[in-house]
Structure formats: structure tokens, C-alpha cells
Amino acid sequence: MNAKTSAAVEISLSCPICGEKLITMADQVNCEKCSHAFPVDGGIPQLFWQNDWAADKPDVTRTMQAFYEKTPFPNYDDFDSAEALRLKARRGVFAKLLDEQIRHGSSILEVGCGTGQMSNFLGMTWGRTVVGADGCLHSLQLAEKFRRENEIKSTRFLQMNLFRPVFPPESFDFVVCNGVLHHTSDPYLGFQSIGKLVKRGGFILIGLYNKYSRLATDFRRWMFRVSGDRMQFLDSQIRGRAANQGRKDAWFLDQYTNPHESKHTFGEVQGWFRGNGFEFMNQYSESAGREFRPGRKAVRAARSGNDI
Questions:
Q1: Amino acid 78: pLDDT
Q2: Interior CA angle at 246 toward 243 and 249, to 5°?
């Protein structure tokens, strides 16, 4: 039996505890095998289950949940309609390229969707099935509120631990995980976990902090610390006039006060792809001086570049 939240979105779910099939009821989701009942609140299935790692393995999951419950990122302060979100997203080249190049009829999973702006934007295009998953319930409530108010029927949201995914293997044509894995205790294990959800012939897109391009952020973080946060003008996002104060505050907290982050190189991440049966397609990094320009093919094979 499949879980449903609207006529436009239908996707199978599996139990994060035992891996067996889940059945969605009006106010809860039940496991056929272990009989565990997960609540559904405001249309959001709460399927998060904690890691069962060894006691000596570090785990920042709860710490990161608490951080984003308090400071959801990004917020919706600048958007009062789906059209406003669409215009903003299409001004950003990355979101525009994804929207144009993801095949019609694709099933898409955004892991670590936050407040769901990308998931809601991608769900505005007819013929797609989009699922946004995150560990932070507050962020998901903001995402679901916007989805409902703007009648975005091809998108749904649920709460999930990416280390304990709630989908059978090979469930999605396209998996997006941008800016998330570097906030976990084990980014490579997280990649392996979500990589199993990609269908054969499908795509996975991940975004990680680059070891070298992140040095400028580290320097600004140090300057803010020694100045008592009085030098925030050093950050172009905060200095700019495009965003309101709420979005600037959310950006500052996410970039400069985050309790955990890791940094990575292309060589390392390309090894992740090779080691898990993926063919490398394309890359983008400030450290390499390459930008996602209009017309660039995000899902077409390109040179792997250097290991930085």
C-alpha cells in the first residue's frame, strides 16, 4: 500500500526502524511489521528515528536539529505567493538550471530541504513528484504552510533522518542534497545512505563546503568573533540590499554560528561517487573559479577537473 497526501503525490514509504512497508492513516503512519505508529501533524508524517550508532561514534544530529528548530533557514519573509518564489528562484541560475533540465515525469527527493523553497519551486512544474525531507519539524511546518496556501499539489513534506531513510531503494529519479551532509557527523555515510534511493539511470546532486573556498568564511567568522559581530558588512549577502533583515539574520546564523560543519575536496567527493557506482557528471566550485552560468548543463557529463 502506498502513502498519500494528495492526489498528485503518491510514494511508497518504509519504516525507519525495521525497513518494512508503512501504511498511512488519517492521523498516523503505521508499520505493518513492527507495529510502530508515527504521528502525522499538519499533513507532515513525523518519521524521524534516531541513529543507533556505537556509543563512541560522535553524533551531532540532535544538536543540529535544535539549531534549525530555533533558526529555520531560509525563511519565507520575502515571499507572499508562489509566483514571488518562482521569480526569485529563476533569478538564481542553479534553481533555474535544475528546473529546466530535470526530465518531465521525474520523481525528486530533496534531502535536508529546510523550509522547502527548492521543493516547492520544483513542484510548481506539472508532471513531477517532489518530496522534501528534513529533520527539523519547524522548517517543515513553514514549507507545508506555503505549499498549502499556494496549492502546490505535486510536492509533499515529511520529517526524516537521512541516515535512516524512509523510502525503499531506488525510489527516485533525482536526489538533491545541497548544503546538508557537511552538517552531519559522517558525511560519507550520509551520501551512501541517500545514494541508495536513486534509481538506476537516475541522478544525485550534492553540495558540500569546499575545503579551500570556505577559508574566506572562516576568516570572516573570526573577524565577527573578535569584533563582537560589529563587522557584518564584510559579508556581501548581509551588505546587499536585496534581502530583508530577517533573511540576513537567518543567513548570518547559518553561516557563522552553526554548531558543526566539515569541509571537503573534489578528489574526496569524486571518490565517493566512484566507490558507490555513480558516474561523475559535473561540478561547480568557487575555489575552481567556475560558475553555474545560464545554458550550462548540470546533468551532462563533463571533465572532472582537479582534486581541489
A1: 65
A2: 95
Identity of the amino acid at 86 = R
| Spatial distance between the Cα atoms of 108 and 100, rounded to a whole number of angstroms | 14
Task: Identify whether the C-beta of residue 61 lies closer than 8 Å to the C-beta of residue 161.
Answer: yes
Q: Please state whether 289 falls in left (phi above 0), alpha (psi between -120 and 50) or beta.
A: left
Q: How many CA atoms lie within 13 A of 237 on its CB side?
A: 14
CA distances to 61, 69, 114, 123, 290 from 210, rounded to whole Å, are 21, 26, 21, 29, 13
The DSSP 8-state label assigned to residue 125 in this structure reads S
Q: What pLDDT does residue 5 have?
A: 40
pLDDT digits (tens, 9 = 90+) for 90-145: 888 889 889 999 999 999 999 999 999 999 999 999 999 999 999 999 999 999 99
Which helix (H) or strand (E) segment is 41 a member of? strand 37-41
Q: What is the pLDDT of residue 11?
A: 83
Section 165-180 average pLDDT: 97
Nearest to 118, CA basis, from 103, 104, 133, 137:
133
For residues 118 and 136, give the distance between their C-alpha atoms in angstroms, rounded to a whole number: 16
What angle do the packed helices 266-275 and 187-195 form, to 10 degrees? 40
Run of H or E including 156: strand 155-159
**pLDDT class of 286 with cuts at 50, 70, 90:** low
Bridge partners, 81 (sequence order): none
Q: What is the pLDDT of residue 155?
A: 97
Angle 253-292-201 from CA coordinates, rounded to 5°: 100
- pLDDT of 250 reads 87
